[in-house]
Amino acid sequence: MHRRLLAPSALAGCLLLAIPASAATAAPEASAPGAPGIGDPYYPDYGNGGYDVSHYDLRLKYQPKNDRLEGTATLLATTTEALSRFNLDFALDVSEVRVDGRKAAFTRAGSHELEITPVAPLDKGQRVSVVVRYSGTPSQVKVDGYTSWHRTPDGAVAANEPEAAWWWFPSNDHPLDKATYDISVAVPAGTQTVSNGVLTSQSSQLGWTRYNWRSDKPQATYLATLAVGKFDITTGKTADGLPVLNAYSKDLGDNAGAARASVERTTEVAEWLTEVFGPYPFNALGGYVPNTTTGYALETQTRPFYSPRQFADGANVSVVVHELAHQWYGDSVSVKSWKDIWVNEGFARYSQWLWSEKEGDGTAQDLADYVYAQHPADDPFWKVEPGDPGPENQFHLAVYDRGALAIQALRNEVGDKDFFAILKGWPQENAYGNAKVGDFVQYAEKVSGKPLADLFETWLYTEVKPAAPAAARATIGTEKAPAKPKSWKKIAATNTAHDYGKVH
C-alpha cells in the first residue's frame, strides 16, 4: 500500500519531481482467476493457485448409521496474487460459502473443484477467511470412479494418499500448502473419534459427544485424518512428556493382539528414531488401527493409520518404524511435488533396515545385498526411476527398495559419521517445509564435502541395474547368493502398506 506524504506545497512539488512518473501512477495489480491446480507435474489439477492456507478449523457432525457428514470449514489464508476468484478441492455438497463474512458465489467445475467468486476481488497479500458449509454421504460420492472414505462396521475412516481430504473437508489439496488444524467432531454418544494431534477436550449433550483435536504444526492435507467408531484407547507420555494416544477398534478379531503388540511399541520406536533423525517434530504421538478392509498403512501426522491386515501374520514392529520415520521424512519435510516421493519413501524404508541393524536381525548392508541379488538385470524393477517414477509407479516397490539401495550407497560413499549427520541434519534444516530430490543431493554434498550427483544419478535415475551393489560383497556376483536376513520377512510383509485403498 502506498501512502501519500503531506508536506508544504513547495516541498511537495520537489518531491513529486523526484518521483518517477511510473511510480506515482502505479496501478494495483489486476485481479484474475486463480489457477485450478498448484502446478504438480503428476497431478496438474491437485491443489490450487493464488493463495496459501495457514489454518483449517473444521466443525463436523457425523452419523455412522447412515454415513451422513455435516460440516463447517473455516480456512484462514493469504493471497499470493490478486484474485477475482479461486478454487478449493472438494467433492461433497456445498450449501453456502462466505469470504470475509460476506456470501460468495460458487459453482462446481471438473471432478473435484469448487470455484468461489467473492463479492469483491482480493488484493495480493490480503489476509482472508473462507467459510464453507457442506454435507453429504462420503462413501457414496465417487470422484473418477472411487472414494477414499472407508466405512467400517461402527463408523468410518478418512486416510489415503495422495488424495483423501476431498471427501470430508474443502482444502488446497497439495503438500506445498501446509497449515495447522483444529478438528472438532460430534458423534452419537458411545462412539469415539480419533484424529491428529492432541485431544484438547470433549463434551456430551443431548445424546452426542463432541471431540476437539488440535495439530499445531504445519500439516499437509493428505496427512489429516479422521476415524469414527468404538475404540480401546491407551494413553501415556514419552520420557520427554509428549502425550501418546493409541486406538484400536474393538472388533479387530484375531488381529487384535498382534496389532496392539506392534503399535504399543510406538514410544520405544519414536525414541530410537530421535537418535537417528533428531528431535521429534510434533505435539503428539500414537497410532490407530480401525476395522477397515484395507491393507495399507499411512503416515497420518502424529498418529499413523494401520490396516488390521498389517498384523494378520502376527506382530510387526517394522511397519511402525516405517510410518513413524515418515514423521520426519514426509510429514515434517514434505515433497515439493509428488515426483519427489523418494524423499519420503526411500528413507522410511531405510529406517526399517536401520531398525533391523539395531535389533541384530541383519545389517542395512545385509539387506542391501539381498535386495540387489533378488532382482536380475532384466527385472522391470530396474526400469522404475525412484527419483522420478511417474504417477503410475509412484508407490512401486522400486521407490522403496531401490530407493533404500541409493541411501546405502550414500552411506558407503561418505562414511558413517557424515552419513548419520546428514540423516539427522536434513529434517532439522528443512523442518515443516518442502523439498525435492535435488535439494537432498545438494545437502548431502554440503555435509560430506563430496560430489554425489553421479551416485544419485546411478541409483535414482537410470533404467538399468547398476554394475555393482551399494557396496560390493564377495558373495555377490558369485555362485553363493547373499543369505536372507532374519528381518526380511517382516520388512517384506510391509510391502502391502503401500497399496493405497480406493473404494470403487
Q: How would you explain this protein's 3D organization?
A:
This protein is α+β, with helices and mostly antiparallel strands and 504 residues long. The chain is 26% helix and 27% strand. It has twelve helices and 23 strands. It has helices at 9-18, 21-24, 256-263, 266-277, 317-325, 342-359, 364-374, 397-414, 416-429, 437-448, 453-460, 488-493, and strands spanning 32-33, 51-63, 68-79, 83-89, 93-99, 102-103, 105-109, 113-117, 127-136, 149-152, 155-158, 179-188, 192-195, 198-205, 208-219, 226-229, 231-237, 243-249, 285-289, 297-298, 305-306, 334-335, 434-435. The strands form six sheets. An eight-stranded mixed beta sheet has the order 6-5-9-3-2-12-15-14, with no helix packed on it. Strands 1-4-8-7 form a four-stranded mixed beta sheet, with no helix packed on it. A hairpin with a 2-residue loop joins strand 10 (149-152) and strand 11. The model is unreliable at 1-24 and 472-476 (pLDDT under 50).
Describe how the helices and strands are arranged:
Blueprint lengths: L8 H10 L2 H4 L7 E2 L17 E13 L4 E12 L3 E7 L3 E7 L2 E2 L1 E5 L3 E5 L9 E10 L12 E4 L2 E4 L20 E10 L3 E4 L2 E8 L2 E12 L6 E4 L1 E7 L5 E7 L6 H8 L2 H12 L7 E5 L7 E2 L6 E2 L10 H9 L8 E2 L6 H18 L4 H11 L22 H18 L1 H14 L4 E2 L1 H12 L4 H8 L27 H6 L11
Parallel strand pairs: 1-4, 2-12, 18-19, 22-23
Antiparallel strand pairs: 2-3, 3-9, 4-8, 5-6, 5-9, 7-8, 10-11, 11-16, 12-15, 13-16, 14-15, 17-18, 20-21
Helix pairs in contact: 4-5, 4-9, 5-6, 6-8, 7-8, 8-9, 8-11, 9-10
